[in-house]
Amino acid sequence: MELPFPSPLKHDLLERNPAALVVVPTLSLLLGQAIVSASLFSVLFLSTFSFISFLLLGWLGKKRWALLLFLSSAAFLIGYVMHTRILHPNFPKNHVSRLTNTGDSLYIEGVLYREPERRPDRSRWFLRAERVWRPNGSQETVGNILVTVRDVVREWHYGDRVRFRLKMRPPPHAGNPGEFDYGVYLARRQIYLFGFLQSDAAVELLRRETYSVWGFIEHLRRTISRFLERHLPHQQAALMKALVVGDRGGISQEMRERFTAAGVAHLLSISGLHVGMLGLVVFYLVRYLGSFSTSLLLRWNWLKVATFVSFLAVLFYTALAGGRVPTVRAAIMVGFYALAVLLDREEDLQHISQQFQ
User: Fold this and answer.
1) What does pTM read for this prediction?
2) Mean pLDDT of 80-100
3) Lower CB density within 10 Å: C or N end of the chain?
């Protein structure tokens, strides 16, 4: 009996394993990051070999293998270049790290480029330095600084332009293999200095940002947090803020330990569960509302419209939740699924063909 689909054995290895177009470039990206400590000659040799192989495969008509090699080589170079910038940064002359020695105090002016992270015993500010003030005048500078403030008596927002005196030093690096490297963790966020303030009493507020897209999102995030604080007890409000807007600063250590002991500590981080539920609710809501209009159903593919609107809602919620790594990862997965629906790629035809074998 003639099968409705050709046997997969007649196809190329990559046609039978399309996931290799994702897996191999991902491994190449990790390899590029791991080989940063190798010599530049090794990197140039691998890049030249990959380029020649790419041309050869293209000339032989192996388009899929050429595409795989091209994606893997590009991922390798991206991983190498990005990790080199993290571990061996080339600071400009006016970078704030070049203007001070460890332990020196500088009068710095800058902008809070992220909403301050509030913790039960401290607050963390992410400052983008723009100017250093000296007795003989000021000097423009660049660079990001992580500032820990022990006692916070005033309210600080994203976009605030501030000025204060600060002692800075580079973050520590791991001393043992496999140990968490706090310096690399901050370097991935382009932060190479951190400082400490006992209190925000001496911090001068120069200007408050009020008109920007991200400023509006942060304002909405603060409004939701204040609403929860006013209408719920302290512990319940802290938990709801973590689940709704990703603000885990108010969660006590005791509650964290309880969630850890119960094996559900991951629920405190907005990730696939929260993002998926939101996307699903918006999807069904849009489909339900569209079903009331016959003209809309006849004119548009309402399945795709609902998918697209739900993805927009997921993007907005990702920003509202602070754009942390688990939330962004979940949004990317939802985005790939939405893209498959929009491109009419809902079924894996190759998987269906193998079921007929």
Assistant:
1) 0.71
2) 82
3) N
